[in-house]
Amino acid sequence: MSGVKRKHYDTENDSDAESEAKEYDKPVASPATLASIAMVKEPRLGVDHMLEYIKNRKSHEMTVLILHAKVAQKSYGNEKRFFCPPPCVYLLGDGWARKAEKMAPDVQVCPYVGIGGDQEMQQLDFQGKNFCAAKTLFISDSDKRKYFTLICKLFYSQGQQIGTFHSRKIKVISKPSKKKQSLKNADLCIPSGTKIALFNRLRSQTVSTRYLHVGNGAFHASSSQWGAFTMHLLEDNEPESEEFTSKEGYIHYGSTVKLVCAVTGMALPRLIVRKVDKQMALLDADDPVSQLHKCAFYMKDTERMYLCLSGDRIIQFQAAVNSKEGNREMINDGTCWTIISVDQAQYSFYEGLGPTNIPVSPVPIVKSLQLNGGGNVAMMELIGENFTPQLQVWFHNVPAETIFRCDINILCCVPDASMFRSSWGDYSQPMQPLKVALSLVRNDGIIYPTGLTFTYTPEPGNRARMPTFERAT
After folding, report:
1. How far is CA 35 from the centre of its chain?
2. Least CB-packed of 94, 121, 253, 462 within 10 Å?
3. pTM for the whole thing?
């Protein structure tokens, strides 16, 4: 590949690939599923099918998103401490509606969710929406697992299985620690730049639980839907602005933070996290914020104003001065929020050759890429989960020769840039690195976007002979 150098990969995912790979519990396909997939001997997807997908990706893609807390409190005896916030299953992408148009009018997607082990799976109902919540899941003290994953099985109501999808790993805890936390228990602390959820329970009543959420362009308190918010740690002197610099480190009481909705990008003004003790906000607490702690959010540079809910509305509440203790301010129930870290597992696919009766799972997950060699002979190693011999790597609309090693490792030959149809453009202008979207294609035509891109980079000299490629969108 004269004049062009193949470069490292880039990822669209915001979490560290290596650490995610360690935490991810992989779903295992049944022998029957793998056998039925293997019945198709040769890749059947054509270049035209892939180009159609790339051109109309938004209208074709189907995504299953599982949102859940990173920790779950164990139930003891006959009690049932339902997971809070409740795990939610979302069906995203226009492909679901397109698929529904081709099926009988009364066919619906039926979800079942469970925690594995001896507990039965619970049937949920989308009720005409694109999400549903598993509100009655719990883990008992007889279950000795320290970690578990949620299992979500999706079927069409006529009996056809869509697939089986797993959440990220969830840590089991006994109860929130009331002791002063330290960073020795880092897995219970909250790093800057990670996602959290906030919920409020008036007088500790479960039925009154409301979640901070963004809907219709505004923050509100929802009884049915919870939001995931990225919590950024700021410098204390960071001014109020739409743009800000996020620090590394763990969130402590007294920290200045910014809460940004992970879906809409809407943000609250700068907040200071304060510890709560018996309807008092502690102004001098500085220990790390921990899972399921109760906290309050002081709106920085205001006169004792706190983030508060009133029914479905989010308002500002002015705390009262504590005349006896100057390091405390009196707050109300609506300003007392429980904080918990949250995570998500996302699976996207498209039936490139039309509807298939074979489950789309196990959905392959690519965690990282490693380029070996260079020049005219370059190999790329894909590291991840749920790989099968029936998968082929595609660079944009170009299939690559693929070698299956095991369920976490496959190799492929990197296509020469000359394989792509587009030209690099005007040679009189500086040439920029160009990114190629990577997909995995099952041999019955199921396309799995990886969220990763491969970059072709121009090298100095020999510019007129450079093979080129148009940027993928």
Report:
1. 30
2. 462
3. 0.85
Number of domain units in the chain: 3
Residues 6+ away with beta carbon under 8 Å from 134: 83, 86, 87, 88, 89, 113, 122, 124, 150
Q: What pLDDT score does 326 carry?
A: 84
* CA 415 to chain CA centroid, nearest Å: 30
Beta-strand ranges (E) seen in 331-386 are 337-351, 365-374, 377-385
pLDDT band at residue 15 using 50, 70 and 90 as cut-offs? very low
**Nearest to 376, CA basis, from 419, 411, 425:** 419
Task: Give yes or no: residues 325 and 392 share one domain.
Answer: no
Q: Which domain holds residue 294?
A: 187-342
Inter-residue contact 378 to 412 (CB < 8 Å): no
Lowest mean pLDDT across 78-92, 264-278, 367-381: 367-381
The H or E element that residue 7 is part of is strand 4-11
**pLDDT (tens digit per residue) in 89-108:** 999 999 999 999 888 888 99
- For residue 219, being part of any structural domain is answered with yes
Do 332 and 375 sit in the same domain of this protein?
Answer: no
Both 197 and 336 in one domain: the answer is: yes
